[in-house]
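Support request, please re-run this one:
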Amino acid sequence: MEPGEPTTPEAPALVELWLVRHGQTEWSEAGRYAGWADIGLTPAGEDQARELGRLLPHGPDVAAWSSDLGRCRATARLAGLRPTVDRRLRELDFGTMEGATWPELSEAVQEALLEFDAFAAPGGESVAQLEARVRAFLDELAPGRHVVVTHGGVVRLLLRRAGRDGAVAPAQVERLTWPLRGLGHDGPMPRQSIIVVNTGNGKGKSSAAFGVMNRGWARGWTVGVVQFLKSGKWKVGEKKLAEHLGIEWHTLGDGFTWESTDMDETIAKGRHAWEVANRMLASGDYDLLILDEATYAVKYGWVAVEDVVEGLRNRSPRTNVVLTGRNCPPEIIEIANTVTEMVKVKHAYDEGISAMKGIEF
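Re-run finished. Output below.
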């Protein structure tokens, strides 16, 4: 290589995490919080652990890890793993909450648990302390595949850092992949983003997408919307809500194609909508982008499917995407993480009922 010649940066080494919550215990079955209390598996939990043996990767290229608490070590053993035990993979220390059920918690504690990140168990451990020890564990991992048998709180923490959230059931398995360098830096852990497609001939594709828009905004996300087909003549309720919430909204279409009086202008507007969307995808400014009716731009040939796939693949790692529209191309379905096909069973229009404010728009 000549002096001064630019070098191509190496791709970051990857850590592939298979996160496993231990099998069922008497306390999990009863809905009791079990932190550092060493509660054993039930017979059903043991069966769950054996079943995990079929689902989890095995072999010399797979490293296995387990919390030091008995319910995790038993789960790993019954799943056919020989884990290295690490105390840092313990559940959150729930302090005086140990053994309590949800109805027994105060309203303030319930609200803090739902928000999660700022939660601190009375007389126990905070989520910040939990994250510090989990980070320390992750920082030491070598590139490759790692099966980690741990607890619901640890799995939920990492899922949240990957942009997901939700209850973690006993014996639940979640797979996450991050660049190794992203697991050890001083800032927040990098979050994986996903592509969601709502397609099919049934009603509800855009309605579901705008439900996600509301959910993302409620979580403090920066949200943007690009509409590919509807024109500014449409006064839709979701746009009114978005304006009230301060959500960036672009209505860039020219209306339905069968109503067009100038197809060249309609096509140009469709292509412009993709240019705007593509810039937003790459900008890194958004946690969530709704690309409403985007599939029609490909279906009608305004935008090449290869360009859309490339834009989605090269988007900012921060940006989740929801695309809507009928006849989603298989190339987009292939790279999407979640695809739902809306199927028409009945529609009010077939009974002569026109589109209604508050339902359709």
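The two ends are 60 Å apart (CA to CA). The first strand starts at residue 14 and ends at 21.
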